[in-house]
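We emphasize that the prediction below concerns an isolated chain of 192 residues; any contacts that depend on oligomerization or on bound cofactors are therefore not represented. The input was used exactly as deposited, without trimming of termini.
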Amino acid sequence: DSSIHSIKGVRECDHITIRNCDIASNEFGWKSHHIEMKDSTIASEYIFLDSTDVSLENVQMKGKYSFQYMENLTIENCILDTKDAFWHSKNVTVRNSVVKGEYLAWFSDGLTLDHCKIIGTQPLCYCKNLTLIDCEMIDTDLAFEYSDVLATVVSSINSIKNPRSGKIVAKSIGEIIREGSIMEDTCEIVTE
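Result of the prediction step, given as a token string:
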């Protein structure tokens, strides 16, 4: 039940619980471990940079460069409005959440998006072990470039570009771009 307004809140900390808080902190949660955040709002750039074992539930977040270089992150019932989220992250699960912002999750490994709404350009590129379970993709173009992906999408996708491997199932796809000189045809793409 606190307002935390500072530039570098919760830095290099361990075993932190945050509930019912309003946070405005550009460099929040850096190099920290075992953090639980519930029922809170946060505005931040570079939130939780290089942190591990973090869980967010019912959090509304606005910012940029969120969750970069993180490991073991769980997000449930959240609204995330952020650019460049989850870059280079490992072992991240996002459930029943809205993730809005361009260049989502580039270079991530082990990201699972389960019943999420994904909004923004060029999402989910250069990913390894990427899984989407019954997600919506809104205004998403040039998705999945160079990614290893298993995806079930319950909406249309504007365009997919050069997925590396796996299977993508979507309601419809506006355009499939395959640059033959760059990619082998090893990703199965199915529309229902």
